[in-house]
Amino acid sequence: MRKRSYAAYPYFIWSILFIVIPLFMVLFFSFTKKVDGSFVFSMDNYHKLINPVYLKVFWRSIYLAFISTLLCLIIGYPAAYFISKINLKRRNLFILLFILPMWMNFLLRTYAWMSILGKNGFINTLLIKIGLPSITLLYTDSAVLLGMVYNFLPYMVLPIYTVIIKIDENLINAAQDLGANKVQVFSKVIFPLTVPGVISGITMVFMPAVTTFVISRLLGGGQYMLLGNLIEQQFTNIGDWNFGSAISIFMMLIILLSMAIMTKFDGDENKEGGGQVW
Fold first, then answer.
1. Distance of CA 193 to CAs 11, 32, 149, 155, Å?
2. Helices 88-99 and 52-85 meet at what angle, rounded to 10?
3. From the centroid of its chain, how far is CA 133?
4. What is the DSSP string of 22-90?
5. Cβ neighbours for 198, distance < 8 A, ≥ 6 positions apart
6. Residue 108 C-beta-side C-alpha neighbours within 13 Å
7. Above 60 in pLDDT, residue 5?
8. pLDDT exceeds 70 at position 19
9. Rounded (5°) CA angle 130-133-137
10. Residue 4, beta-bridge partner list
């Protein structure tokens, strides 16, 4: 027992140094302001958040994160289901194709879309060659959403796929033997059993989507200010660490609230899942 407790010390020290202390520093800065070279307690940073300009940024960030998460779910669930039903060799190949882009640098993946969607990019060049006028694709909400879906889709597919392949085929066979058609089998057996994977996927996509700043800066051209961009601006350009910390704490509360809602929903589904198939 003592050896096990000693082995946990490095992880404990790591957590203190790189999680607890930075979190307390951000919390400290958010509740203070600098007056005559010293920090004094103040709620001004949080009062500043009520400004309509910042509320608009919050709304846009949550809206785009919600839409991108929904699109990832709409695309990712059928993809995960399809991959789980093919033979093992092809299944591993498809999973590799989803994971492969994640081995590349996040920034490079986003830059690649700039060359595809740009004014002189691949799509507009192709349109001009076939006699059609060029269209504005870059620096729009659609470009930002495309970047989010492309970068975060694997985080939706993999949890759902992992849950689907663990479903006992005997449950599906039993439902079919009892007279359930394909729609009933999916809605009453398969989908309820995959809810934990869906919840994990939603959480893993929504959190980075609501905090991203690289995608909105590159594909949005800097004209689409999101929470991540606002925090980066406060820390790097303006140098207002106090207000930047307050925004960070507010964003953290949004993420924790969304996770609590997802966890509660997941718990309710598990409680209801112990009964009849239909």
1. 34, 47, 25, 19
2. 160
3. 35
4. HHHHHHHHHTEEEETTEEEE-SHHHHHTTSHHHHHHHHHHHHHHHHHHHHHHHHHHHHHHHHHHS-HHH
5. 73, 77, 159, 160
6. 5
7. yes
8. yes
9. 110
10. none
CB 89 within 8 A of CB 96: no
Tens of pLDDT, residues 157-184: 999 999 999 998 899 889 988 888 989 9
Amino acid sitting at position 260: A
User: pLDDT value at position 275?
Assistant: 42
Q: How many C-beta atoms lie closer than 10 Å to residue 261's C-beta?
A: 13
Predicted confidence band of residue 194 (pLDDT cuts 50, 70, 90): very high
pTM for the structure as a whole: 0.85
Give residue-wise pLDDT tens across range 218-265: 898 877 788 888 998 898 888 889 999 999 998 888 888 877 877 776
